[in-house]
Specification:
This protein is of the alpha/beta class. The chain has one domain: Hypothetical Protein Mth938, Chain: A (3-Layer(aba) Sandwich), CATH 3.40.1230.10. Strands 5-4-8-6-7 form a five-stranded mixed beta sheet, sandwiched between helices. Strands 1-2-3 form a three-stranded antiparallel beta sheet, with helices on one face. Helix 1 runs parallel beside helix 2. The longest helix is centred in the last third of the chain and has 13 residues. The two termini are 22 Å apart. The relative contact order is 0.24.
């Protein structure tokens, strides 16, 4: 799906998505990432599936200065166990889990409002089933 936005100069926003990629300012990304006002970072879980997520992955996310983290789990909602996300709670970062489409739309809305938001996206490798 293609998104149409009115972005501020230099602001990175989602401009499209599908089940296996996202577009950020029209540039395609096929692996898991974190998008925030600080830029785009390839996620430490890139190339792995949902079941491979660890507490260390969320500790990495907690190092970012965010008020809210949107966590995109692909085409369907899957909630990480609270023991994995404890670092976010300790860092006082709110967590919202969503599918890829909701993540893209919500991030763009919050980012254009100037909110301190991050979008952590899980794009699973083709060989992993989406159950």
């Amino acid at each position: 799906m293609k998104l149409h936005l009115n972005a501020g100069a230099g602001q990175k926003l989602f401009t499209g998505y599908d089940t296996d990629h996202v577009l950020i300012n029209e540039q395609r990304f096929d692996s898991s990432l974190l998008l925030s006002a600080q830029g785009i970072e390839i996620a430490p879980w890139a190339g792995q599936g949902f079941d491979a997520l660890t507490a260390a992955h969320f500790e990495w996310l907690a190092l970012h200065k965010l008020d809210i983290l949107l966590f995109g789990t692909g085409t369907r909602l899957r909630f990480p166990h609270p023991s994995l996300t404890r670092a976010l709670t300790n860092a006082r970062i709110g967590l919202e889990v969503m599918d890829i489409g909701a993540l893209c739309r919500t991030y763009n809305f919050l980012a254009t409002e100037g909110r301190s938001v991050g979008a952590a996206l899980l794009i699973e490798p083709d060989h992993l089933p989406l159950l």
